[in-house]
Amino acid sequence: MFVDRRRELQILKSSYELLKRGDRVNIAVIGPRRIGKTELLLQFKEKAQGVIPYLNLQRIGSLDSFIFAYTRELLYELSNTLGITVERSELLNWDDLLILSAKLDVDKEVKAIKTGTLETLFEAQEAILANTGQKALFILDEFQEVLNFKGFLDTMRAVTEKQKNIAYLVSGSAVRMMEEILEPKNPFFGQFRRIYLRGLPREDTITLAKTTLEKAGIESAQSALDLIYKLTQGHPFYVLAVCRRLIGEGFEKVRRKEVHYAFLTELLTEKGDIYMHLEYVFNESLSRAHRGPVHKQILLILAQEEGLRLSDIAKRLNKPTGEVSNYLKFLLRTDLIVKQGGRYYFADKLMRFWLAKTYLGITELELKREKFLEELIQELEEKYLRAKMELGLAKEAEIREKMREIFGLDFKSYRRGNVEFDGVAFGDKIYVLEVKWRERPATYRDVEAFLKKVKDEFGSAEMFFFSTSGFTDKAMKLCKEKNIKMLTPDDLGIGLG
Ligand SMILES: Nc1ncnc2c1ncn2[C@@H]1O[C@H](COP(=O)(O)OP(=O)(O)OP(=O)(O)O)[C@@H](O)[C@H]1O
Ligand SMILES: [Mg+2]
Predict the structure, then answer these.
(1) What fold is seen in the domain 6-196?
(2) Residue 43, Cα to own-chain centre: how many angstroms?
(3) How far is the CA of 41 from the centre of ligand 2 (A)?
(4) Is any ligand 1 atom within 6 A of the Cβ of residue 234?
(5) Residue 190 CB neighbour total at 10 angstroms
(6) In this structure, CATH architecture of domain 391-492
(7) Closest to 175 (Cα-Cα) out of 37, 6, 7
(8) Looking at residue 391, what is its pLDDT?
(9) Which ligand has an atom closest to residue 178 CA?
(10) Above 90 in pLDDT, residue 381?
(11) Which residue intervals of the chain bear CATH 1.10.10.10?
(12) How far is the CA of 2 from the centre of ligand 1 (A)?
């Protein structure tokens, strides 16, 4: 069962529509492991009409096999679209492809690809598409794997940049690596629109869990579903793992108590899918570390206490900051940790909890004790999941600092009863600051809500609205109308890292 991702599907759909009308938009779908990238791409492919080849680069070992697999998928999808029936299982080698290409009247091009280079492939595909009168949106999953092929990006960019009949939809779980591919110094800078995939929203998470349990004849209390959302933060793989555990345990009705047990069993015992997943990600991330034990030690320190600075960590390791800085740089590249305002945090809060707890060696027997489970959940909610907020607070602090430097306004966070503002400064008049640190643009409703809050609290004030991902057109219009100063990270020289 597939839930949500409506906005993302819409973006993908419209990019293919644009391509058909002659405007190509490449898209990069970026997100952590198991968040649902492949599922989204395949869902889009299934629903869309047209030539949408899909290739997962994870399983491709050499450039030759890439060229073959790429051509094969392209021809397969073309044939299907043009009503030529062919099975994938009939396309096993170049001879099979050549026979098919003759039917499509593109055998000259395919012959050239067979004996050619990567450049030939990209050049010939344009001719193939032109000859058959088609436009293709090629999906390349686990795109960061192309980094194994030297010069791949340069070639691809140079040849495909001016092509009219093809656009790309790339995806990858190595967030840092994907960002590097799209960085200014690299050939693909400015060529891709990025979609960041995160956990599912509350409502859809609950639908996913509820339906999955119902299918197995299990009834679930609303409070239990709420808890599943809270603990998994909408990560679909975690949600499904918890549901599978609940089903496997043979519960008839699921309340909070059962969720406590299922979730912690999944997370903290070796038989759990979440446990295995985290262990895999952890080991894989560190597999290229030359000083593995030190890197591990740093992560354990951060698992105990997040938000440390380089100097704090160096002190605890009793090593020079220069050396520790290098370890941290390595760890940042693995996506395990993030740096915000000079402090280090775990990217995945459950990974942090898992590390902190599994090194303590919690036994299955202990997980049978209800009281112990409750305590663990409480600790998880209060200490680990809440840390997300601290991260947000650190960002807000950084923004207020920049506002001081640039505008000379001394914003302080503001709270009176239930009313909160990210920053208020009192001077000749009242200045109010709103911060939206999100991966989607601020909307009309965000701005409207801010306006109302300011009006209710202060009557009038000079307003600043900071948004990491810009503003929708409507939001922008409203800001201009109401004289709200719009700010983005570029305006303040703030990195998003
Ligand atoms: N929108 C969704 N609705 C329902 N289930 C989903 C959804 N997205 C993902 N899932 C489920 O979550 C799991 C992980 O999804 P998927 O394999 O697509 O993630 P991924 O980001 O491609 O992972 P990887 O980084 O390992 O390639 C799968 O079991 C998938 O069926
Ligand atoms: Mg995938």
Answers:
(1) Rossmann fold (3.40.50)
(2) 17
(3) 9
(4) no
(5) 9
(6) 3-Layer(aba) Sandwich (3.40)
(7) 37
(8) 61
(9) 1
(10) no
(11) 285-361
(12) 9
Query: What is the location of CATH 3.40.50.300 in the chain?
Result: 6-196
Over residues 460-482, the mean pLDDT reads: 94
pLDDT, mean of residues 32-55: 94
Positive/negative CA dihedral, 421, 227, 267, 179: negative
By alpha-carbon position, which residue is closest to atom 15 of ligand 1? Answer: 36
CATH 3.40.1350.10 range(s) for the chain read: 391-492
Q: Give the pLDDT mean for 375-400.
A: 76
**Mean pLDDT rounded to a whole number for the chain:** 89
Write the pLDDT tens digit of every residue in 286-324. Answer: 888 777 789 999 999 998 888 899 999 999 999 999 999
What does the block give as tokens for 55? 């290739």
pLDDT interval class at 361 (50, 70, 90): low
Q: What is the per-residue pLDDT across 129-161, written as a single tens digit (0 to 9) for each?
A: 999 999 999 999 999 888 889 889 889 988 888
Take atom 9 of ligand 1 and give the residue whose Cα is closest: 36
Contact 198, 439 (CB under 8 A): yes
pLDDT at position 224 is 96
Fold classification of 285-361 is: Arc Repressor Mutant, subunit A (1.10.10)
Q: Can you tell me which atom of ligand 1 is nearest the CA of 173?
A: 25
Ligand 1 in reach of 209 Cβ (< 6 A): no
Q: Whose CA is nearest to atom 12 of ligand 1?
A: 237
Residue 35 Cβ inside 6 Å of ligand 1? The answer reads: yes
